[in-house]
Amino acid sequence: MLNVIVTAVVLIVNFIIQSTVLQFIEIRGVIPDTMITIIVSYALLRGQNCGMAVGFAAGMIYDIFFGNSLGFYALLCMLIGYFCGICHRNFYRENYVLPVTLSAASCMIMGLVIYVTGFLLQNNYNVFYFLFSVIVPQTVYTGIAAIVVYRILYSINNRIEKKEKEKRRLF
């Protein structure tokens, strides 16, 4: 129960920070997508089911506030959480390479899917412009921000797991 409450608080605080504070550190109109980093981090630290649940919740927040239809971002983020959670068992938690790489790759994939579904279907064929002015810079920026976000979530997850272990002890 504690994990669910903490996860909800993390998602809400991240949404507030991403939509307010991160606007001040934008570079060429691009801000890091910390929500994807949170999804990837939870998937790597807790597994596929938790990654899917966090992805669905984060996607619903995106859909409610930014989306044109309900469920598109939820499905996309849920799939990201599922596929990133595959690495959960064979993952050394103290290593930052995989969270940074998966966050950047997920950001790239999400940007391409959004381009294909949002712009290409509306006969907007500026592929290279959108790729090099939005997707690639946001991918790099998200990869850099993933180091900080993953470190914070890693320490939060360790504290929660420690409390869960203490709660399960009978003697």
Structural account:
By secondary structure, this protein is an all-alpha fold. The protein contains 6 helices and no strands.
Primary descriptors:
single chain, 171 residues, mainly alpha, 6 helices, 74% helix
Task: Provide a quick synopsis of the model.
The chain is built from 6 helices and no strands.
Topology readout:
Elements: H1 2-19, H2 34-46, H3 48-65, H4 72-84, H5 97-119, H6 127-168
Helix pairs in contact: 1-3, 2-3, 2-4, 2-5, 2-6, 3-4, 5-6
How many β-strand runs?
0
Low-confidence stretches: none
Question: Separation of termini?
Answer: 22 Å
Q: Globular, elongated, flat, extended or rod-shaped: what is the shape? A: globular
Q: Which secondary-structure class do the elements indicate?
A: mainly alpha
Mean pLDDT: 90
Element-level helix/strand string? HHHHHH
Instruction: State the share of residues found in helices, binned by percent.
Output: over 70%
Taking all Cα atoms into account, the compactness measure Rg is 17 Å
Strand content: under 5%
Number of helices: 6
Q: Major sheet: size, sense and barrel closure?
A: none
